[in-house]
Each structure stands twice: as structure tokens, then as C-alpha cells.
Specification:
43% of the residues lie in helices and 19% in strands. It contains ten helices and eight strands.
């Protein structure tokens, strides 16, 4: 999940909750949060209160920058009514008073903001152990796709992936989910940017992982799985499957750049969501 954490110190402790929230929102909006980024924050005077701000829609209106978002408060761990908001930037460090809507968004862009928040929140959900290589059951969708592909291409994909998973100590369901999403089990697949084979290895990645023939199913799965394992164990990812998948798709550098969060790229977000849905079904 795309999460930035802030500790905000509000100067006047006599602010009402509404004033405090507006002040915090102004500060966070001025931080130039990217569309798709979620910030959660609290201040020292309300240690039991945690707030979430999701900014997803940024647009121009009458030569002003405006943003639609929603906020959610938790007090002592209990969720409070959702608050949807719209605000436009009047000047540096100053945004117009937030137009609030409690519980139900008033406009389509606010609805979209909330849907995207829910989508991103699910990416952080816990799934099976990515390092468990034995005793697994393929979800129906993956079983159906891999069985069909074995007959179509006359390649024992499940055997290859199972053996590779044991070698790399990697969950075979995760490998299947990546193969399904990357190439739909097509060992001859080539993307518009030159990625090849089952796990869509770029030439540089294939070379790095010792893959001589990216169209060879065994070599491709071995190299792709090794690279995925490498991403899972990189600093700042530490076994987080969603982040490892983001690094596999968009590069580890982008995961670092966005503070060890899933980069807010539409392609990467959809990619991670698809694979996590398949993986968490096991």
C-alpha cells in the first residue's frame, strides 16, 4: 500500500477538531503528494487518533490546482465516519476551506478516489508465505490456465515451476501468478519493449540471471524466479510480496524512489493487483 507517515505538530492546542483537520490537510496537500498516494498521520496532542488522507485526483480549475480526496479517522483503533473532500490551492501553503461530504461522496471524482484507496489498501493484505516451496494447491484459475497451456505448448509448466520453486525456496503459486500475468503461459511471448518468454525477461535481466535462451521455458522460469527472489530480499522490501512485484515490474529503483512503496504508475498498480489477487486465492 502506498503509505507515507507524517508526525504533524500543530502550534495551537486549542484548535477544534475541524480546524486541526483542515490545518493538517493543508500541510499534507502542500507536500505535493502524488496522485494515488496515501498518507497517514497523527499529531502529538492526539496520540490515540490516526488519520488517513488519500489524494487521487489532481486537476486544474479556473487556473487553480484542485484535489479530490477522502480522509478517514481512527480513534483508539475504531474507524470514524468517512469524510470526502475537495480543495483548491489559493497560494503557497494555503488551500481553500475544504468542502466536506460525510459518508457519501458528492461527485464522481471523490467516488473514484475512494475506490482507488480501497484497491490500494488491498495490495498490502497478507498472503501466503512467499518462501514456502512445498505443500501448495494451485487456485482454480491458475490450474485451468496452466493445464490448458501444457497441452497447447506441450511443455510441463507445473513440473518446471514446482522444481524451480524448490531450488529457489520460493512459493510456486507466486511464480505461477507471475507467469500467468506476464505471458499467460506463452513461452514465445515478446512484449513491445522486448521482454521475452514466460516471465517476460528483459535482455539485461536475462543476462544478469544467466539465461542464455529466454524462450527456453526452464531457463526463463529459473532466471525469472531467481530475479523475483532477489527483489523479495532487497533492502526495504524484506519479503513484502507487493513491493517485490512492483520492483519486478517497474524496477527496484522506482520502489526506492517512492519511499519503498508501490510506485503510483497505473500499469504497476494494475500489475500488482492482478498478481496479488491470484496469489492470495491460494
Amino acid at each position: 500500500m502506498l503509505v507515507s507517515t507524517y508526525l504533524l505538530v500543530v502550534g495551537c492546542i486549542h484548535l477544534t477538531k475541524e480546524q486541526r483537520l483542515t490545518s493538517d490537510v493543508n500541510t499534507l496537500l502542500e507536500e505535493q503528494l502524488l496522485d494515488g498516494e496515501i498518507a497517514n498521520w497523527h499529531d502529538k496532542d492526539e496520540a490515540n487518533v490516526e488519520r488517513y488522507l488519500a489524494v487521487f485526483i489532481t486537476y486544474s480549475q479556473a487556473n487553480q490546482i484542485c484535489r479530490d480526496y477522502f480522509t478517514m479517522l481512527e480513534i483508539s483503533g475504531k474507524p470514524q465516519p468517512k469524510q470526502f473532500g475537495t480543495s483548491c490551492r489559493l497560494a503557497p501553503q494555503k488551500w481553500q476551506p475544504v468542502q466536506w461530504s460525510i459518508n457519501k461522496p458528492k461527485q464522481s471524482s471523490q467516488k473514484k478516489a475512494y475506490r482507488h484507496y480501497r484497491q490500494l489498501a488491498k495490495l498490502g493484505g497478507k498472503g501466503p508465505n512467499p518462501f514456502a516451496a512445498n505443500d501448495y494447491t494451485l487456485p482454480k484459475k491458475l490450474l485451468k490456465s496452466s493445464t490448458y497451456a501444457e497441452k497447447k505448448y506441450n511443455v510441463p509448466f507445473r513440473k518446471i515451476i514446482g522444481k524451480t520453486a524448490v531450488e529457489h525456496k520460493l512459493n510456486p503459486v507466486l511464480i505461477h501468478a507471475v507467469v500467468k500475468t506476464e505471458s499467460n503461459y506463452n513461452p514465445q511471448a515478446v512484449s513491445h519493449v522486448g521482454a521475452k518468454g514466460l516471465m517476460q525477461l528483459m535482455p539485461a535481466t536475462a543476462k544478469e540471471m544467466g539465461v542464455r535462451n529466454a524462450f527456453n521455458p526452464r531457463q526463463n522460469v529459473k532466471g525469472g524466479s531467481g530475479y523475483l527472489k532477489k527483489m523479495l530480499t532487497r533492502r526495504g522490501i524484506n519479503g513484502n510480496v507487493a513491493l517485490a512485484l512492483a520492483a519486478y515490474n517497474a524496477g527496484y529503483g522506482n520502489v526506492q524512489k517512492y519511499g519503498y512503496k508501490v510506485p503510483p504508475f497505473k500499469e504497476t498498480l494494475n500489475y500488482v493487483k492482478k498478481i496479488m489477487t491470484l496469489y492470495q486465492a491460494s
